[in-house]
Amino acid sequence: MDYEYTNLAPEFTGYPGAPGRPRNFYAPAGDIGEVVVSIITPAHNPGPAFEETIAAVRGQSLQAWEWLMVDNATTEPEAQARLAALAARDERIRILRLAADAGPAAARNAALEQARGRYVFLLDEGDLIEPTALDKLAWYLEAHPELAMAKGSSVVWGEQTAYLTAGFAAGNLFLERNPVTIMALVRREALQVIGGLDTTLDPRWSEWDLWLKLAAHGYWGGDLPEFLDWRRSPGSAAPAAQVQWTQARAFFKARYPQLYQKGLPRPVSVEPAPYAPIPVEVPFSNPLAKDRPRLLFFMPWMAMGGADRFNLDLVREWTRRGYECTLVTTIGRNYAWYREYARLTPDIFILPYLLPPTDYPRFLDYLISSRHYDGVLLSNSELGHHLLPCLRARHPEVPYVDYCHMEEEYWQSGGHPRRAVAYQELLDLNIVSSVHLKEWMISRGADAEQIDVVYTNADLERFNPSAELRAAVRARLGLDEDTPLILYAGRVCAQKQPRVFAAVMRELVQAKQRFVCLVLGDGEDLPWLRRYLRRHKLTNQVWLMGAVSNAAMREYLAAADLFFLPSQMEGISLAIYEAMAMGLAVVGADVGGQAELVTPECGVLVARETPEEEVARYTAVLRELLADRERIRRMGQAGRARVEQHFRLEEMGEKMVHELLERAPALHAARPKPVPGVHLALEHFHLALREKALEERSCIPQWLETWSHTWSHKLKAAFGLMLKLKDALWIMGHRVKVVLGMAKD
Predict the structure, then answer these.
(1) Nearest to 280 by CA among 388, 364, 392
(2) For residues 389 and 426, is the Cβ–Cβ distance under 8 A?
(3) Which of 196, 185, 230 is nearest to 104 (CA)?
(4) Residues with pLDDT less than 50, the chain
(5) CA-to-CA distance for 635 and 604, rounded, in angstroms?
(6) For the chain, percent helix, then strand, then coil, each to nearest 5?
(7) Quick check: 582 and 554 in contact, CB under 8 A?
(8) Which residues share a beta bridge with 328?
(9) What is the Cα–Cα distance from 720 to 652, expressed in whole angstroms?
(10) Packing angle between helix 360-371 and helix 382-394, nearest 10 degrees?
């Protein structure tokens, strides 16, 4: 899987606990019961920054922890007072005292002897962890029994911020240097088998030695591709960097010759056989206290798009009112807006990064049991629909709501709304983005009494016309006020009809029409569009700007005059809401519910026809408008007024809060839904997974699938040999670079 580290990097907000970081209310609801994680921290004269470490630990979403703080001969009065106060804050915190400064390895071993958790998390004073770190790492190990430890990516936090994405998957790189921080979750049993850390080593070497010692006993770990820990000191991020690499390698090569001969362990996950039972038992409990409404929100990803902007706006409206959101995504790609969501809630779980699909049902059972949600909302998540029977089977007390944007006749005979009709018997409420979509669902058998309309609407504060911004952006683009500026914004894919758009642009250029058009967005058809524009010499007037941020989108809208979007299908395009809010005239497609937003005073909608007929019609409309700038201006003013009167974002927020906290619970009580049996629900999900897998491998016969499962362990062994060869070549290349560097010096 290609993990999107760039978008997951948390540079936008700073360290956990920093001003501006979102905080959820994580506190145990009564006795924590079983200790899941024992946190071990050696402390020697901890300074004021230690308070931030305390806050990071106590602010974990997994509250079933104990913290063994080892006072390693603290001498400063202020530090002693700080440690004394710490134990008084929380009965889960125990202070262990060593008479003399025996070093961090001895301190960790002293705590390990008294640890009760099934897992141990190694944390140094002053270092920080993300709020969901323990939750995610514990579940990662529960889902991967072949692994002894789990690690997230690290932020090295000093004068300059750096991101360490190397982890246990680096394998034989650990024979060259230590590429990770100490902050990992390790099975307590594994640490006990190896006898803990070596207290005789130089402290700068002990962390590196710990990983190699575990490897020498056959243990190894895996990586969760999210940034979960923060280390303040760049120097301590790689302890062996403080000594000569050659000396360190020679020492460990003599200590662990078998590792340098055969390489590090490569644990192999045991994939379940086709149709093997799906696990249902939740491995541990984590009941959290609650002081405000909570919502569990299913979405496919965090991509850039209209439906995704609605999701983002809804979470913003929800959190602005003081409520809490847990976000669960079901597709392992497209996280361009991850940072936007992370500014609003810390409770984000990317399921494909965290767990195999067969563990999704029990993990969601755990989430709902832990957080006691007031409602579950699904938005454009195919897998969310397939999980719905499992959720209702385990938690029939929770209202379940679905939000749909548009029908897609070309995908699964209607796409998400078609499934929403099929699953209506398990949903308490359906919410749709237009009257048109409600009527479409009713025509396919949906219960009209269970469907409400909530328009997506626009943020009038963010999208507000500005003459100053318009002038500045046009000056930056090199455009005078007499040049009409058209925007075509959205994902450059078949739905937005880039071929129709390109043909219209060609007609306008050939008619010697004066204008510039900006294409804002990325997508699978962008390479084709780029070639077309070059081939037909349109690049002087049609500029490809690529994917742009929300802020840049607003700037370009401020500078533009007209918004053009000849879509194949839409619910109601959010980009058109925003264009109208910014005072642009609109030329678009008369599809979905767009006529509910765009009236003749605000723009022109063209009915779907053949591509040739659409090109002719759009060209005629645009030529007519470009010849009458005053009409464009009047349309823009009317569009802004219409959004102000009927389609304000705050109105959407209020309606969605009402629908989720009042309407859905009322329907839930008045019209109880059937509760499927757990085994039937799991079988339904299992079959959905099998169907999806077969769909992705439709060219592979079923007999070959069975054969591949039987022989998969042999194929994995061969792949493991290839990985070892790759590691050996990497190390050889690294050593050559070292030698060449020394020769150069």
Answers:
(1) 364
(2) yes
(3) 196
(4) 235-243, 699-714, 716, 738-739, 741-745
(5) 10
(6) 45, 15, 35
(7) yes
(8) 298, 349
(9) 53
(10) 60
The secondary structure element, H or E, covering residue 702 is: helix 702-710
Give 51: exposed, middle or buried? Use CB within 10 Å, 0-12, 13-18, 19+.
middle
CA dist., res. 732 & res. 730, Å (int): 5
Domains of the chain: 35-262 (3.90.550.10), 294-457+651-678 (3.40.50.2000), 467-647 (3.40.50.2000)
H or E element that contains 652 = helix 649-658
* Number of residues written out for the chain: 745
How far is residue 404's CA from residue 392's CA, in Å, rounded to a whole number? Answer: 20
DSSP assignments along 260-298, one per residue: HHH--------PPPTTPPPP---S----B--SS-EEEEE
pLDDT reported for residue 708: 43
* Token code pair at residue 235: 């120097």
Backbone angles phi, psi at 77, to 5 degrees: -55, -45
d(CA 338, CA 346): 11
Closest by CA position to 137, among listed 177, 113, 168: 168
What is the structure's pLDDT at 13?
A: 59
Q: Identify which of 671, 656, 696, 665 has the alpha carbon closest to the alpha carbon of residue 382.
A: 696
Q: Report the interhelical angle of 498-510 vs 611-626 (nearest 10°).
A: 50
Q: Which residue in 134, 543, 186, 550 sits closest to 341, CA to CA?
A: 550
What does the DSSP assignment read for 37-94?
EEEEEEESS--TTHHHHHHHHHT-S---EEEEEEEES---HHHHHHHHHHHHH-TTEE
Q: Output the pLDDT for position 4.
A: 67
pTM for the complete prediction?
A: 0.88
Closest alpha carbon to 653 in 317, 343, 392 = 317
Q: In which residue are the tokens 């969760």 written?
A: 224
